[in-house]
Design brief:
- Belongs to the SIMIBI class G3E GTPase family. ZNG1 subfamily.
- It catalyses: GTP + H2O = GDP + phosphate + H(+).
- This is CobW family GTP-binding protein.
- By secondary structure, the chain is α/β, with parallel strands linked by helices.
- It folds into 2 domains: 4-197, 3-Layer(aba) Sandwich (Rossmann fold); 218-305, CobW-like, C-terminal domain (Hypothetical Protein Yjia, Chain: A,domain 2, 2-Layer Sandwich).
- The protein contains 9 helices and 12 strands.
- It has helices at residues 17-30, 71-85, 100-107, 127-131, 138-149, 164-177, 193-197, 231-239, 292-305; strands at 4-10, 35-41, 58-62, 89-93, 116-126, 153-157, 182-185, 218-224, 245-252, 261-266, 269-274, 282-288.
- The strands form 2 sheets. A 7-stranded parallel sheet has the order 3-2-4-1-5-6-7, with helices on both faces.
- A hairpin with a 2-residue loop joins strand 10 (261-266) and strand 11.
- The radius of gyration is 19 Å and the shape is globular.
- The protein starts with a strand and ends with a helix.
- It binds guanosine-5'-triphosphate (GTP).
- The site of guanosine-5'-triphosphate has 22 residues, from helix 1, strand 9 and strand 10.
């Protein structure tokens, strides 16, 4: 019986998992393989799924982490992908707060023992974040370390933001946490598909687990704009945000433009990409110990200010 290969994409919020997924999907398609995707997001609204082409079978698990809260749903979604599409491989993109082993446990259900072959855990690390990891809460530091320790392949990403000395420091530091993993330095998660397809999953010892549902105080919030806002006022809003908002993604429309922008914000760095059609104006926020009502009031003020 043909087994479907499974790859688990792990890595902290905003490290470059979706960027990696997009590249792998393109390469898999070019090599003639039938691919399916299972995407898990903490927020109740999906943004990343827009990045996956319509011809790729996609299932989404929103509003929680695969690891425990929605494990049953994961099994149902996997079953449906297998029955309906019989893919050669399935890529599972986990939330940035997920412990990769718990996601793996969910995939290794006896239900799929003969159908799925787990090929590996790929962990993406934001190089700059790794250097600055001590400024994050101990739980987040632990989660990032465990995502690294359990990986079969580690992608140290955003190397365009690193000096040569920093690249060496990060690579040696990360390799010492997981000597068996393949470690590669990339910009925009540029990894060769051959390297991915030749992976073989290796069981690692179980370590302590940090997880969004218990130790981590990560929470999410979705704001839906009803109209366009002023760009300068929006940038002022961003600058005043607490440091513990780690990720914002979604669509925002400015007074001066006809279509919205895809907005990405990780570790204080905003990126705007112009859309060519209307999109639902939802912004998903992820942060630690944040009073979301306050953020919501500020956004409402922004909408009132609109010229
Ligand atoms: N400068 C730079 N930016 C990058 C690189 N790779 C990805 N990015 C940007 O970083 C942001 C986050 O990338 P994603 O691929 O969405 O990260 P993610 O891990 O899927 O994020 P979550 O799903 O929220 O956890 C996006 O704006 C990317 O364009 C890189 O190598 N260099």
């Amino acid at each position: 019986m043909k087994q479907t290969e499974v790859y688990i994409l792990s890595g902290f919020l905003g490290s470059g998992k979706t960027t990696l997924l997009k590249k792998l999907l393109k390469a898999e398609k070019e090599s003639g393989r039938k691919v399916a995707v299972l995407m898990n997001e903490l927020g109740k609204v999906s943004i990343d799924s827009d990045e996956v082409n319509d011809d790729v079978p996609l299932k989404e698990l929103l509003g929680g982490c695969i690891c425990c809260t929605i494990q049953d749903k994961l099994e149902a979604q996997l079953q449906e992908l297998l029955i309906t599409h019989q893919p050669d491989c399935i890529y599972i993109e986990t939330t940035g707060a997920a412990h990769p082993v718990e996601t793996l446990d969910a995939v290794l259900s006896p239900l799929f023992a003969t159908q799925l072959h787990v090929k590996g855990i790929l962990t993406v690390v934001d190089g700059r974040l790794w250097l600055e990891r001590r400024t994050y809460s101990p739980q987040i530091q632990q989660l990032i370390s465990e995502q690294i320790r359990h990986a079969d392949l580690i992608v140290i990403n955003k190397s365009d933001e690193l000096s040569e000395g920093e690249k060496i420091l990060i690579t040696t530091g990360i390799q010492s946490l997981n000597e068996k993993a393949i470690v590669i330095l990339t910009t925009y998660s540029n990894v060769s598909i051959k390297q991915i397809q030749s992976l073989s999953y290796e069981k690692k010892p179980h370590l302590n687990k940090s997880h969004v549902e218990n130790d981590l105080k990560l929470s999410t919030f979705v704001y839906s704009f009803s109209k366009a806002v002023d760009l300068d006022a929006f940038e002022n809003f961003l600058q005043a945000l607490p440091d513990t908002i780690y990720r914002i993604k979604g669509y925002v429309k400015f007074s001066s433009t006809s279509f919205p922008y895809l907005f990405q914000f990780s570790y204080g760095m905003p990126i705007y990409i112009k859309e060519e059609m209307n999109m639902p104006l939802n912004l998903v926020f992820i942060g630690e110990n944040i009073l979301w009502d306050e953020i919501s009031s500020k956004l409402e003020e922004l909408e009132k200010k609109q010229v």
